[in-house]
Predict the 3D structure of the following.
Amino acid sequence: MTPTQIPRLSIIVPTYNRRGLLERCTAALRRQDVQAPYEIVIADDGSRDGALEFAAALAHEDPRVRHVRGRHAGTAAAKNRGIRSARGELVAFIDDDWIVAPDFVRRALACFDQHPERLAMASRMVASSDSPFVERVNHFHYETDMRLLLERRNTFGHHLRNFLAGTHYPFRPQAAPYISASGGLVLRRAALDVVGVFDEDLAIGEDTDLAWRMRARGITLFYNPAIEIVHHYRPTLRASLRQQFGYGIGLRDFVRKRPDHFALLPSTPRGALRFASNLVMRPVKKALQSDSTGQLLAYLPPLFLLNAAYTAGVLYGMSRRPVETPAISTAVPRSVSPYRAAPAAASRPPAPPPPPA
């Protein structure tokens, strides 16, 4: 691609102090088997480990690469800087610990060319074939949540019957209005004009919030498992538990934004019972999605620990400060975007789906 060409696809890569991962990620993004023009926008979030210098050097070397920088303000802010700089009609978001296949751009463009009615698409995340045990457990933890959101069935009996029969819900192309906009999200710029961009007030989960706002505005994500992206998860149990604890703390901000969605919290007897039940049943229902008894027995203990860390984070986060309960709004946060959301409908938007139980 020459500097004067307008890219069809802008790939935004938010990054912060992970130069090694960024080098590996961008190397894969530059090895695409397509002639169509695309660009890579590295959105640095105030890195101090040489990532910014690497991005600048790469932009000087490769005309497809550009970089934007800003003060450390979180992933949502970095993504929004990338959006403001992006020039493509289509915008993709690739984390710096992901590795795309050489056909990523080609398949993404084909999906939207063949289906002009689609506004947003998510890809399938996979683990590397040589991933260590903890990374495989982390991927299983993620993939079972994805299966739940695609299938919309999560009873113990359902999972037990599937395990005994040796069958599980297949990952197939489908409309997926309940999944998060996290795994290899690609969308038309028109979708951002409708819903706005990422909420910079959210420390984590900005992609889930965006998916909820898209669903409220009638924009349905399409799940495309033909596009696979390798995710390098946390490699140690300690790092994984710390991550899940942070996710639990981050739920507080969702409660602030969607108070009616989280009516069942530990502050009520029913909520306390549900939390206690989830502490046991959620990892069991996940483990029952294993392919063998051996895998079930190996994965169940770390799944219990991951779920316990998340639950502890929820309880800690909810106890840190009172949770405000403002009226629900799908408007774009004040701090983001030159792209403004369309006026909210007069009727109340549909309630978002509950998080995996």
